[in-house]
Amino acid sequence: MNKLMAGHEPEQDLKNAGLKATVPRMRILEIFQKAQESETQRHLSAEDIYKQLVSENVDIGLATVYRVLTQFEAAGIIMRHYFGNDRATYEMDDGQHHDHIVCTRCGRVEEFVDKEIEKRQKMIAEQLGFELEGHALSMYGICSDCRKKKLEQK
Amino acid sequence: MNKLMAGHEPEQDLKNAGLKATVPRMRILEIFQKAQESETQRHLSAEDIYKQLVSENVDIGLATVYRVLTQFEAAGIIMRHYFGNDRATYEMDDGQHHDHIVCTRCGRVEEFVDKEIEKRQKMIAEQLGFELEGHALSMYGICSDCRKKKLEQK
DNA sequence: ATCGTTGCAAAATCTTTGCAACAGG
DNA sequence: CCTGTTGCAAAGATTTTGCAACGAT
């Protein structure tokens, strides 16, 4: 029960973030921690989380999920992304910036960082007279699995 | 009244795109053509267009604006972007791909292209096993005008 | 006991759709 | 004319908010 366990002790993690350790917040944080460890599905929407909680017989409202997500984002526990255009998805914020490539068939998301791209972005912002605050780079394509399926169908 | 005037003859442009030249479509296309020439405000939302038409005493419904925008996008006349997260904005599609940097203070949008970034994106997609279909790179920052204002306030 | 938190329902926002009236070719 | 198009109103989808009840300390 020490700080080294951070990341697996929802109650302590919440208190460290200055948030009361309530049932909804702990359950939601657990879902993110579990998702973080999984190969796929690190990115969850409010609806995803709500459905999972309901299926676990947790009595919760969708509004609460939204409120908790907002609080977690403000606390730097999670990050919000808008991939398509419609719904927001969230993933744990490990402090390391990264960009995404999203499969347009199955929705799978892979993450990457490219120092060269980051460097050129800074340069371009400077040239255009902007003080760069952030950026969002999302690429869209067909992942290896879906490409295989595509070939099999032919 | 010839093809060389394309870009300034809404009626002909619409027919070329396979769309009937109706009043709403012509008015909306004109708005985009005018916006295209302006230094600022090349990016318009459905609401922007609707308000402008209403202010010009054109009898039109917001639903029609949305329908026309969808048709124009399908016809390759305009491109849709999602900068923030909430509303979509559109700009004329000149056929040349470009990315955007958006001022977080005043909403001003500048466009740019960087061959090196494009090249590395292709490379990364390949490494991750994706067949790249597209990408969206938006940077966010404070533009030169807003930086000046910021300094004056201090 | 206190003050933040929750669930519910209602509202807000942006966008799409059903439908009868209308208009372009 | 005939079919596509429009305006209006209503529905959808996602997210936010008001409020009274509830719960952690």
The beta-strand count of chain A equals 5
Name the shape of chain A in a single word.
globular
Number of helices of chain A: 6
Sheet of most strands of chain A: 3 strands, mixed
Most extensive interface between two protein chains, with residue counts: A-B, 33 and 33 residues
Radius of gyration of chain A: 18 Å
Strand content of the residues of chain A, in percent? 15-25%
Order of helices and strands of chain A: HHHHEEEEHEH
Strand order of the largest sheet of chain A: 4-3-5
How would you sum up this structure, described in words?
- Two copies of one chain form a homodimer.
- Chain A has helices spanning 10-16, 23-37, 46-55, 62-74, 115-127, 144-153; strands at residues 78-81, 89-92, 99-103, 109-112, 131-142.
- By secondary structure, chain A is of the alpha+beta class.
- In chain A, the strands form two sheets. Chain A has a three-stranded mixed β-sheet with strand order 4-3-5.
- The radius of gyration of chain A is 18 Å and the shape is globular.
- Chain A starts with 9 loop residues before the first helix and ends with a helix.
- In chain A, 23% of the residues are buried.
- Chain A binds chain B through residues 82, 85, 88, 101, 103-104, 110, 112, 114, 116-117, 120-121, 124-125, 128-144, 147, and chain B through 82, 85, 88, 101, 103-104, 110, 112, 114, 116-117, 120-121, 124-125, 128-144, 147.
Brief overview:
Two copies of one chain form a homodimer. The first copy, chain A, has 154 residues and is of the alpha+beta class.
Key structural traits:
homodimer, 154 residues, alpha+beta, 3-stranded mixed β-sheet, two-stranded antiparallel ribbon, globular, DNA-binding
